[in-house]
Amino acid sequence: MSEIPFSRDFDARPGEAVSLSPLVRRIVCDNPGPFTYKGTSTYIVGRGDVAVIDPGPEDERHLQAILDALDGESVSHILITHTHRDHSPLAARLKALTGAPTYAQGPHGGDKADEGALRLDAAGDHDFSPDHRLADGDVVEGKGFSLEAVLTPGHTANHMAFALKEEEALFSGDHVMAWSTSVIAPPDGNMADYFASLKKLLGREETVYWPGHGPERRQPQSFVKAFIAHRRMREAAILERIRAGDRTIPEIVKAVYAGIDERLHGAAALSTFAHIEHLIGQGKVKSEAGEPTLHGVYSAAAGKR
After folding, report:
1. Domains of the chain with bracketed CATH
2. What is the distance between the alpha carbons of residues 241 and 238, in angstroms, rounded to a whole number?
3. Are strands 102-104 and 74-79 parallel, antiparallel or unpaired?
4. Which of 85, 154, 90 is nearest to 124 (CA)?
């Protein structure tokens, strides 16, 4: 498998507003875990009149940390990268306290979208619905900053990154992180969309990514290329296991993800399922019993290499 140069050097400092650049501050929520690393990052963009990106989960201490950091400032926009419960729930309370409207691609995809997410730490936030729905390329402007909406489905159907033009930076949410690959959990997550969204970023010119979890990533285009190569090799390994006779996702995970933390086996199964869906779409794999599911039986399609 290809090696991705992940960074583990990250001083989270939960609850502290850390200045990252002239326009960007970060506050990390104290919600560490196997899927959140050292916690969810909330970003404050601007000075004086500001935007808040991903207020985070329902957490009193985190809310107070955000309010302390905003002392003497006003909030003009609240932006959400995606509606997982570690990113969006606190938006409602922050809106009530500041009067700022919320912006996102859209609400959560519905109950069906949680069939995969419920197996992870961060199920969907069904209560969130944005005041303003953003389309790809829309620009939100504040005092001294402008944020372009960059639609990046894959991790979730409504995932959106935000490009800060003034600093050639991208708030990449959970689409690209420097500490781990993203979990793609069908049906809300989709591997074909994820590949397309990664390739989309290769055509952009941002010089730094600020992710939803973990440290920033400089020289991000080379990093995104490594992600694409890693996912292609992972998919090739899954296809090889199916051709070798593995028929179920647990069998494939045992072979392809040998040695990983057992707490991540559920996530590995979901990403394997997403790859299988992608392989079925390419005509390389077939489901032996109707619609593909996490518990389905699979085989290689004849004549497809």
Report:
1. 18-218 (3.60.15.10), 230-300 (1.10.10.10)
2. 5
3. parallel
4. 85
Query: 50 - beta bridge partners?
Result: 75
One-letter amino acid for residue 237 of the chain: A
Q: Model confidence over 31-45: pLDDT tens digits? A: 998 889 999 999 999
Which tens digit of pLDDT belongs to each residue from 68-97? 999 999 999 999 999 999 999 999 999 999
8: tokens are 């583990």
CA distance 109 to 125: 9
- Token readout for 113 is 């979208």
Total-model pTM: 0.93
Beta-carbon neighbour count of residue 8 at 10 Å?
Answer: 9
